[in-house]
């Protein structure tokens, strides 16, 4: 009976717990999200902040606007950092210090996250770096405990973002593993950790370049690529292919409700790549013209499957039944220690959908924003660790966590 | 004891191991001694012309190397400097176990002269492979070599083995594939000896004559018209000395082979080796150039195909037989048809259609161009809106926008065709004037003594051509540069035979009808082969050929009288039978 | 190094003249050639591994660029490339193990030596363990573990080793030269093992025959492969009685040869055409075939016709077993396998040219031939159709292939050509 299934009950509980009804989200970013004054809780726990942000990013915007937004954000970030650090310097350490620190972690994180070109995991790691910088600990053990608290709060703040979780976990593992090095004293260790964390942004960017390079050979002249969702990695891949003067065309799914397809087609049209927009339901109709499917991933799970925007599973099923290869472009820091067995195994990530007309309150809406694609429907994963088959993912994760 | 020893040493010297210690040698004639490829060969030697973008001589050398030949002597005469420079700068000069030596001459006018020169140089020891630089093959020589050597051991007169290839026994195959006339060969199927060779059969006569003694000496003879001569010969050393002895041997086939077949004083024999699934062909004229290019694109000559031969630049073979080299800039709307080869660095514009063609390197092809069945060499510029059909365009040519090349056009190096100009069919265009001394018999394979140097005779073309271009309305339209060579009346009818363009359907139908008529005539006669005198007498009844028969009958009658007289004298004077036979033969 | 040039030229010549038959022989001779190259390389004091790698890479490039002509074209290139990459990986591994050992030794000796304290102060952050960790990370393929790690002074790794060596004075110089000799010695030993493995791959694979072939089974194969022949005969030796169906493998019809061989060895054999495979597959228990190359995703490059056999086997739930020596393992991914890795041979194997020479010439209109004869040599079998790989290290799943590749090859060696391929 479907109304007794575990996930349904969870959903009901979630809804009953909301204190205020969710506001219909305006798709154009008019002002920065409200500051989390004195609240450790995510004010909208039932709405996935991760997907909200992505929606905000995916609004149909021009690249000029992007540039301006980026510039504005960086100014604000600097202000935040300076104000944050000022705030922290004034502290003497103690109970209130703890509150302020976690407060600033989430703030940090949000401010980093606003930048559209920055990956979630990078923002998380940078936030954690800020924690280290602000920390008063004198031994590695203390520092580790602080970091653990900060990372837990980040994770709790937005439980739906997999790359956030994965990024935090990765950084924690790195800290744990390298904290046992005997040769360095505490200060140099701290310095090293901060430096590595800040360099991580570069690593992320380099990762995209590596993935773009690796996937070039798979795009042959005259091929048709079906793309779903808007992934910066996939865009990089297509950009590089266009620069290498390959002849290919792209089918973009519309990507309701985020309209990712519109944004992607904008970008591709600028690169002179022939683009065709499809509504999501037209995928099976056009699948026989398609040579390969290329998607990004929000997270790559231990089984080798991926978690991505809603609709990916459907497309993978159709491609598999028509013998078309499905390629996933994902950076390696998105590998997460999850093993979902079915769609509802993950925590729900909900997102409001605007149908354009008012829906009667009796009618339920499936608001989930993501789905899980099992590994048997995926052909290859392009990561910065190389081209991998889905079975390699678990190997890598085991090596990391051993 | 001494005699035995002598016999032993004599046997040792004929021991096959002794012979095998000589490395296998080959003579490559890098001059065809013909003028069939003019005007192109006025500026460049035939063996360096690109065949599917690779100079012809590479195919031959690659094949020789793979066949186990270890020393090659390249004989160059026309444009010898170009050939020598090319060989020195290519990889052929530095191969281990494969030495390429060039032999230069400036006054040879035939293959015979070439072989005589090589004999003087005294570099050939033992059997060698004789080939011309425009032959493409992928056959394996081991079996043919072995057979040749075995025959030599048994019979020292077996001096040459010709390689022949089975082709379809249709009367027009030879014409449509290679642009040459039908070839008749009589071969003894048991010993594979060549008994009769005729490549210029006169169709007007409607019959060929075979000597009666052929049938007397050989228990079975098969007359073939389905064999193609590959012009690959395995020769022994006597061949060279024979050329030296007979100064009037010029052409390999017409003089040497026919001479040997007719001459039974010395008793030399030529044998044949037939190949079935391997490929061998010689590029004799433009039609065979076209055909063999197509065969190479279809990979009949594997492993001597462009993507394997030039390993440096990666050439991708795609479906439908399209070859694309690296660095090709194709516009999105350009359509590449099947069996096309695009060389490196070429740019192709929008809406251009290319099919069944070979495009060389670094060409620039504009938009809306149609190219079908053509061969375009390197560094060619074709502007927008041109149309090319079955043409050969050499290096450095510029076709201004809207130019049209009709089938069979040959544009030699650096010609410029003006805007909107239509080059008429089967015309040859060159920057050089047509040489005034034209051999009346254009089939005669004597090279022109001026063929080595082509001069620009016109003042207009001296120095800088550019400022004169717009004002000069030459034969090629506004802005065109070059001369259209006139074709002599007699030869015009024959142009289509060996042109690049395919045989027009009406001519094809006519050809087939002609053959049918010929066959009917022959069957009416009742015998295709008229073996000498008796049968000729039978054909007296045919009224159409009375005159010819009359004359020959007169000759024949006087000949008979002579023979009678000689015979009687021999009997009276008790001359030995052998001598009598010799005398009678000498009367022939 | 004139000798190496001569050796390389000689080897290339043999490849061109097709004097070397089969990928096993090619691989073995390539390994032997590289062994001679290594033994003749002069080793500098510092960065010895880099010198070795450089010389091996140079030879490898030449071998692959030479593009041997002949039916071995693609196969030889893959086998040669694989062996070159294996040797490079061996060099890196040996160097790594020596470095860590030496560093450990150096550390111990340095601690007891007062003179070295100044040196150690100059590199405060780099102790032996750090150097070892850094070197380990440079020499290993990128992984999640090393994602955050920086390689701060990768140049400092050998640098410190050399400076450490120098600063320890003459007493260590003898040790140093012995260490350099040791690297070469270790590498040559490892290459010898590699050659040994390649030579005995058939025996090692055949040893496993008895586990897979049971009594009264019916085996299907296509064409002729030496590995399959040895495999089946080994099972026969162990007194298993089974029958073999051999598909003839047009257009080269090598199945005929295999059938004759099997009969002389006493096996009950049935010869069928390729088209009859689907009809006979229901009577078959197992399909055993050889391969030309195994790609990194577990896909197989096999003689033409095997994709069809694999599909037939999948349809009737018959296990499809591929036998491949470890020198056939290729670290590349097949991007567009039907086109890129296929070799189109002469169509004369299908049609006799003479008979059809008229169809091939004057056609309609442009004189284009209406008859196009295509003769591809290879087939690509996707990994999902393969049930089991039997290599000389044992039986593996196709999804396990990446592990073997990680063991045998290093990521840096994937591209052997030094020039960048732009626009590809």
Automatic annotation (TrEMBL), chain A:
Coiled-coil parts of chain: none
Pfam hit, one: IF-2B
Segments for region (Disordered): 13-43
Keyword Protein biosynthesis found: yes
Gene Ontology CC annotation, any one: eukaryotic translation initiation factor 2B complex
Keyword NAD attributed: no
GO MF entries: guanyl-nucleotide exchange factor activity; translation initiation factor activity
SUPFAM superfamilies: NagB/RpiA/CoA transferase-like (SSF100950)
Keywords attached to this entry: Cytoplasm, Initiation factor, Protein biosynthesis
InterPro entries assigned to the protein according to its UniProt record, in alphabetical order: eIF2B_alpha/beta/delta, elF-2B_alpha_N, IF-2B-related, IF_2B-like_C, NagB/RpiA_transferase-like
Subcellular location, record wording: Cytoplasm, Cytosol
Biased composition (Low complexity): 25-40
Signal peptide: none
Subunit architecture: Component of the translation initiation factor 2B (eIF2B) complex which is a heterodecamer of two sets of five different subunits: alpha, beta, gamma, delta and epsilon. Subunits alpha, beta and delta comprise a regulatory subcomplex and subunits epsilon and gamma comprise a catalytic subcomplex. Within the complex, the hexameric regulatory complex resides at the center, with the two heterodimeric catalytic subcomplexes bound on opposite sides.
Family: Belongs to the eIF-2B alpha/beta/delta subunits family.
Protein name, per record: Translation initiation factor eIF2B subunit alpha
Taxonomy of the source species: Eukaryota, Viridiplantae, Streptophyta, Embryophyta, Tracheophyta
UniProtKB/TrEMBL annotation, chain B:
A Pfam family assignment: LbH_EIF2B
InterPro entries: eIF-2B_epsilon_N, eIF2B_epsilon, LbH_EIF2B3/5, NTP_transferase_dom, Nucleotide-diphossugar_trans, Trimer_LpxA-like_sf
The EIF2B subunit epsilon/gamma LbH domain, residue ranges: 319-423
Predominant localisation class: cytoplasm
Top-level taxon in the UniProt lineage: Eukaryota
Amino acid composition bias (Acidic residues), ranges on this chain: 543-553
Gene3D superfamilies, per database record: 1.25.40.180, Hexapeptide repeat proteins (2.160.10.10), Spore Coat Polysaccharide Biosynthesis Protein SpsA, Chain A (3.90.550.10)
One GO MF term attached to the UniProt entry: translation initiation factor binding
Cellular component, GO, one term: eukaryotic translation initiation factor 2B complex
Ranges in a coiled coil: none
Residues annotated as domain Nucleotidyl transferase: 26-169
Region (Disordered): 434-473, 522-556
Keywords: Cytoplasm, Initiation factor, Protein biosynthesis
Compartments reported by the entry: Cytoplasm, Cytosol
Quaternary structure and interacting proteins, as annotated: Component of the translation initiation factor 2B (eIF2B) complex which is a heterodecamer of two sets of five different subunits: alpha, beta, gamma, delta and epsilon. Subunits alpha, beta and delta comprise a regulatory subcomplex and subunits epsilon and gamma comprise a catalytic subcomplex. Within the complex, the hexameric regulatory complex resides at the center, with the two heterodimeric catalytic subcomplexes bound on opposite sides.
Similarity field: Belongs to the eIF-2B gamma/epsilon subunits family.
PANTHER family: TRANSLATION INITIATION FACTOR EIF-2B SUBUNIT EPSILON
Annotated protein name in UniProt: Translation initiation factor eIF-2B subunit epsilon-like
Species annotation: Gossypium australe
From TrEMBL, chain C:
One cellular-component annotation, GO: eukaryotic translation initiation factor 2B complex
Assigned protein family: Belongs to the eIF-2B alpha/beta/delta subunits family.
Keyword set includes Glycoprotein: no
Cited InterPro entries: eIF2B_beta_subunit (IPR051855), IF-2B-related (IPR000649), IF_2B-like_C (IPR042529), NagB/RpiA_transferase-like (IPR037171)
Oligomer and partners: Component of the translation initiation factor 2B (eIF2B) complex which is a heterodecamer of two sets of five different subunits: alpha, beta, gamma, delta and epsilon. Subunits alpha, beta and delta comprise a regulatory subcomplex and subunits epsilon and gamma comprise a catalytic subcomplex. Within the complex, the hexameric regulatory complex resides at the center, with the two heterodimeric catalytic subcomplexes bound on opposite sides.
Protein name: Translation initiation factor eIF2B subunit beta
Primary localization: cytoplasm
Keywords, in A-Z order: Cytoplasm, Initiation factor, Protein biosynthesis
Coiled-coil regions listed: none
PANTHER family in UniProt: TRANSLATION INITIATION FACTOR EIF-2B SUBUNIT BETA (PTHR45859:SF1)
Compartment(s): Cytoplasm, Cytosol
Source species: Gossypium australe
Region feature Disordered, mapped onto this chain: 150-182
Biased composition (Basic and acidic residues): 167-178
């Amino acid at each position: 009976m479907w109304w007794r299934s575990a996930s349904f009950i969870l959903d009901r509980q979630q809804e009953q717990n909301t204190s205020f009804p969710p506001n219909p989200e305006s798709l154009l970013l008019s002002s920065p999200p409200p500051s989390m004054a004195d609240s450790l809780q995510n004010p909208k726990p039932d709405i996935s902040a991760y997907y909200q942000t992505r929606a905000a990013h995916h609004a149909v915007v021009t690249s000029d606007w992007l540039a301006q937004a980026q510039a504005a954000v960086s100014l604000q970030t600097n202000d935040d950092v300076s104000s944050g650090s000022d705030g922290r310097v004034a502290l003497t350490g103690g109970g209130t210090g703890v509150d302020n620190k976690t407060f600033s972690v989430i703030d940090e994180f949000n401010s980093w996250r606003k930048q559209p070109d920055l990956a979630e995991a990078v923002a998380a790691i940078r936030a954690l770096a800020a924690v280290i910088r602000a920390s008063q600990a004198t031994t590695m053990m203390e520092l580790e405990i602080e970091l653990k608290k900060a990372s837990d709060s980040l994770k709790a703040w937005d439980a739906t973002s997999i790359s956030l979780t994965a990024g935090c976990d990765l950084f924690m593992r790195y800290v744990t593993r390298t904290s046992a090095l005997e040769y360095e004293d505490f200060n140099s260790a701290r310095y090293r950790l901060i430096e590595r964390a800040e360099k991580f942004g570069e690593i992320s960017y380099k990762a995209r370049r590596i993935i773009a390079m690796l996937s070039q050979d798979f795009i042959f002249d005259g091929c048709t690529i079906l793309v779903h969702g808007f992934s910066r990695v996939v865009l990089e891949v297509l950009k590089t292919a266009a620069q290498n003067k390959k002849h290919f065309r792209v089918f973009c799914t519309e990507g309701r409700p985020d309209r990712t397809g519109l944004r992607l087609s904008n970008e591709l049209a600028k690169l002179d790549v022939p683009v065709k927009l499809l509504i999501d339901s037209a995928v099976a109709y056009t699948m026989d013209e398609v040579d390969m499917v290329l998607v990004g991933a929000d997270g790559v799970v231990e089984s080798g499957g991926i978690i991505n925007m809603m609709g990916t599973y459907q497309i993978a099923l159709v491609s598999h039944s028509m013998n078309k290869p499905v390629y996933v472009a994902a950076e390696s820091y998105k590998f997460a220690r999850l093993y979902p067995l079915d769609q509802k195994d993950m925590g729900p990530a909900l997102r409001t959908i605007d149908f354009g007309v008012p829906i009667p309150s009796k009618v339920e809406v499936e608001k989930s924003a993501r789905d899980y694609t099992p590994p048997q429907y995926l052909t290859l994963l392009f990561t910065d660790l190389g081209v991998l088959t889905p079975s390699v993912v678990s190997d890598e994760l085991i090596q990391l966590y051993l | 004891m001494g005699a035995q020893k002598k016999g032993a040493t004599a046997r040792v010297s004929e021991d096959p191991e002794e012979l095998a210690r000589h490395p296998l040698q080959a003579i490559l004639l890098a001059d065809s001694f013909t003028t069939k490829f003019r005007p192109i060969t006025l500026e460049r030697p035939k063996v360096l012309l690109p065949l599917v973008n690779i100079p012809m001589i590479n195919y031959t050398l690659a094949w020789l190397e793979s066949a186990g030949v270890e020393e090659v002597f390249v004989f160059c005469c026309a444009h010898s400097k170009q050939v020598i420079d090319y060989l020195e700068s290519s990889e052929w000069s530095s191969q281990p176990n494969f030495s390429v030596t060039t032999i230069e001459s400036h006054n040879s006018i035939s293959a015979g002269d070439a072989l005589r020169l090589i004999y003087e140089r005294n570099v050939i020891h033992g059997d060698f492979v004789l080939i011309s630089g425009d032959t493409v093959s992928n056959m394996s020589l081991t079996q043919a070599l072995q057979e040749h050597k075995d025959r030599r051991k048994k019979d020292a007169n077996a001096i040459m083995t010709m390689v022949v290839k089975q082709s379809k026994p249709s009367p027009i195959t030879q014409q449509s594939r290679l642009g040459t006339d039908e070839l008749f060969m009589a071969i003894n199927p048991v010993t594979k000896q060549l008994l009769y060779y005729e490549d210029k059969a006169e169709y007007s006569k409607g019959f060929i004559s075979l000597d009666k003694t052929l049938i007397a000496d050989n228990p079975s003879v098969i007359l073939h018209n389905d064999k193609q001569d590959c012009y690959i010969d395995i020769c022994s050393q006597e061949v060279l000395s024979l050329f030296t002895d007979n100064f009037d041997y010029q052409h390999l086939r017409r003089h040497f082979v026919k001479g040997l077949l007719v001459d039974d004083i010395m008793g030399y024999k030529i044998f044949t080796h037939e190949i079935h699934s391997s490929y061998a062909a010689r590029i004799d004229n433009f039609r065979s150039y076209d055909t063999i290019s197509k065969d190479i694109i279809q990979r009949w000559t594997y492993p001597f195909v462009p993507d394997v031969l030039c390993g440096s630049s990666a050439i991708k073979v795609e479906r439908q037989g399209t070859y694309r080299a690296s660095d090709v800039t194709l516009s999105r709307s350009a359509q590449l048809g099947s069996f096309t080869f695009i060389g490196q660095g070429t740019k192709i514009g929008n809406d251009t259609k290319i099919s069944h063609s070979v495009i060389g390197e670094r060409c620039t092809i504009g938009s809306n161009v149609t190219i079908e069945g053509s061969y375009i060499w390197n560094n060619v510029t074709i502007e927008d809106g041109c149309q090319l059909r079955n043409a050969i365009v050499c290096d450095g040519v510029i076709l201004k926008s809207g130019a049209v090349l009709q089938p069979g056009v040959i544009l030699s190096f650096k010609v410029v065709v003006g805007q909107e100009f239509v080059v008429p069919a089967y015309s040859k265009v060159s920057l050089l004037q047509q040489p005034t001394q034209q051999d009346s018999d254009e089939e005669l394979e004597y090279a022109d003594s001026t063929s080595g140097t082509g001069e620009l005779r016109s003042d207009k073309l001296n120095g800088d051509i550019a400022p004169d271009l717009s004002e000069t309305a030459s034969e090629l339209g506004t802005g065109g540069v070059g001369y259209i060579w006139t074709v002599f009346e007699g030869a015009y009818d024959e142009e289509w035979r060996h042109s690049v363009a395919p045989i027009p359907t009406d001519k094809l139908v006519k050809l087939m009808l002609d053959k049918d008529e010929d066959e009917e005539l022959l069957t009416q006669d009742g015998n295709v082969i008229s073996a000498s005198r008796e049968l000729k007498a039978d054909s007296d009844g045919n009224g159409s050929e009375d005159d010819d028969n009359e004359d020959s009958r007169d000759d024949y009658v006087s000949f008979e009288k002579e023979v009678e007289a000689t015979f009687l004298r021999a009997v009276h004077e008790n001359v030995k039978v052998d001598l009598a036979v010799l005398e009678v033969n000498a009367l022939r | 190094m004139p000798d190496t040039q001569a050796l390389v030229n000689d080897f290339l010549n043999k490849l061109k003249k097709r004097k070397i038959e089969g990928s096993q022989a090619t691989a073995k001779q390539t390994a032997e050639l590289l062994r001679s190259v290594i033994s003749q390389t002069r080793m500098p004091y510092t960065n010895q591994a880099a010198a070795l790698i450089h010389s091996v890479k140079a030879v490898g490039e030449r071998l692959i660029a030479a593009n041997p002509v002949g039916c071995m074209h693609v196969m030889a290139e893959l086998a040669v490339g694989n062996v070159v990459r294996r040797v490079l990986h061996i060099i890196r591994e040996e160097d790594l193990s020596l470095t860590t050992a030496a560093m450990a030794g150096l550390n111990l000796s340095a601690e007891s030596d007062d003179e070295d304290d100044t040196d150690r102060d100059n590199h405060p952050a780099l102790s032996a363990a750090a150097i070892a960790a850094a070197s380990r990370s440079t020499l290993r393929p990128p992984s999640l573990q090393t994602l955050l790690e920086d390689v701060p002074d990768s140049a400092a790794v050998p640098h410190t080793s050399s400076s450490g060596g120098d600063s320890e004075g003459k007493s260590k110089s003898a040790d140093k030269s012995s260490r350099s000799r040791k690297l070469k010695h270790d590498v040559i030993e490892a290459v010898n093992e590699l050659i040994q493995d390649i030579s005995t791959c058939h025996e090692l694979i055949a040893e496993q025959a008895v586990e897979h072939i049971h009594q009264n089974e019916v085996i299907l194969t296509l064409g002729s492969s030496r590995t399959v022949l040895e495999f089946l005969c080994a099972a026969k030796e162990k007194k298993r009685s089974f029958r073999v169906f051999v598909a003839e493998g047009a257009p080269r019809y090598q199945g005929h040869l295999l059938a004759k061989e099997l009969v002389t060895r006493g096996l009950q054999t049935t010869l069928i055409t390729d088209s009859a495979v689907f009809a006979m597959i229901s009577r078959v228990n197992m399909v055993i075939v050889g391969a030309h190359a195994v790609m990194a995703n577990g896909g197989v490059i096999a003689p033409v016709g095997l994709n069809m056999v694999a599909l037939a086997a999948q349809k009737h739930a018959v296990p499809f077993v591929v036998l491949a020596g470890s020198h056939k393992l290729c670290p590349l991914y097949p991007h567009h396998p039907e086109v890129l890795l296929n070799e189109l041979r002469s169509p004369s194997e299908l049609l006799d040219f003479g008979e059809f020479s008229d169809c091939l010439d004057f056609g309609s209109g442009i004189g284009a031939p209406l008859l196009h004869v295509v003769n591809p040599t290879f087939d690509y079998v996707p990994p999902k159709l393969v049930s089991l790989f039997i290599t000389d290290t044992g039986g593996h799943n196709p999804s396990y292939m990446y592990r073997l590749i990680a063991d045998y090859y290093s990521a840096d060696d994937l591209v052997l050509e030094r020039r960048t391929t732009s626009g590809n």
